[in-house]
Amino acid sequence: MKSNTGFYLITATALAAGVTIATAQSAADLGKSLTPLGAEKAGNAAGTIPAWEGGITQPPAGYNSGDHHPDPFANDKISATINAANAEQYADNLTEGHKALLARYASTYKMPVYPTHRSASAPQDIYDATKANVRSAKLADGGNGVAGASRGAPFPLPKNGQEVIWNHLLRYRGLGGLRKIGQVAPTRTGDYTLVQLEEKFLWNYHQPGAATESVGNVMAYFEQKVTAPARLAGTILMVHETLDQVKESRRAWVYNTGQRRVRRAPQVAYDNPGTASDGMRTSDQLDMFNGGIDRYDWKLVGKREVYVPYNSYKLHSDSLKVADIVTPMHINQEHSRYELHRVWVVEATLKEGKRHIYAKRRFYVDEDSWGVLVVDQYDNRGRLWRVSEGHGINYYDILSFWSTLEVHMDLLSGRYLAYGLDNENEMYDFSYQSKPGDYTPAALRRRGRR
Question: Domain 12-449 class?
Answer without folding.
Answer: mainly beta
